[in-house]
Description:
Elements: H1 4-18, E1 23-28, H2 33-44, H3 58-62, E2 73-80, E3 94-95, H4 104-123, E4 128-131, H5 139-145, E5 150-151, E6 157-158, E7 166-173, H6 192-196, E8 202-204, E9 207-208, H7 214-220, E10 236-238, H8 242-245, H9 265-269, H10 272-276, H11 280-286, H12 296-311
Parallel strand pairs: 3-10
Antiparallel strand pairs: 1-2, 2-7, 4-7, 5-6, 8-9
Pfam family, one: Fer4_16
Pathway: tRNA modification; tRNA-queuosine biosynthesis
Protein name: Epoxyqueuosine reductase
Amino acid sequence: MNSNAEKYARLIKSKADRFGFQSCGISKADFLEEDARNLEKWLQNNFHGEMKYMENHFDKRLDPRLLVEGSRSVISLSYNYFPKEKISTLENYKISKYAYAEDYHEVVKEILRDMVLELQEEIGEFGFRVFVDSAPVLERSWARKSGIGWVGKNANLITKQSGSFYFLAEIICDLELAADHETTDHCGTCRKCIDACPTDAIVSEKIVDGSKCISYATIELKSEIPDSFKGKMEDWMFGCDICQDVCPWNRFSAPNIQSRFMPNEHLKNFKKGEWKELTQELFSEIFRKSPVKRTKFAGLKRNIEFLKSSSDPL
């Protein structure tokens, strides 16, 4: 290892802290052998449902050197999105906390790019790409390898100091950096997430059948929501936080300080009756910069109609 590997690693972590990242860890850019077996099995079980894109770029998902030529290190970062205030669910449909505000893809990627520019001013030019849930990168695996947290029974990455309400991002680069070590698992015998899931999507510890997940049904699924979800959606119209909300480690979640993650005022004031009258025009106005635009107007209307029909008395 070159003499700068430790120095640069320290600099990057210090810079990440200054740019508002919650955690930063480093792994050697290598083939994810264990994850290859797990991903293959997950796909064979059809746990990805209609997310056919998960079958693409299998090798790239497992080897960052195929994504960034000459890459030697994967820098994993986490960015807190836990809200200062929760949107009331009284007479309202529910929306996942990560979608309360501006689209995290844009916000976190902008911060990452600014951070890399500063790093290049101090270190010199280096080859890199930044990723925020935007390419075939197994983010959770790299974050686990870099010691940011462990994979919980709900398949989310969990950190002792801050729970799991954070986004993951990566800088894959050609710098040789001192790598970190994995942390230990602290779920113990707790089964709260498994027992709380209304659709039994957590089929075994750390394995989620995506096709049974409320988040999948309300965001990823493009066809009609299956009848098997009826009476089990618990008023979630976009995403689902149940398995995170019940996790004991999330009692340590602290509000984020990112102004662009302040809850959308429209979301705070809407009630069920108003959601049912949603128009394309209003959808475009409310969700112009939101992750909710991913489901499109037709998708959100479908979700609301499904919730309405599920709750109507027979």
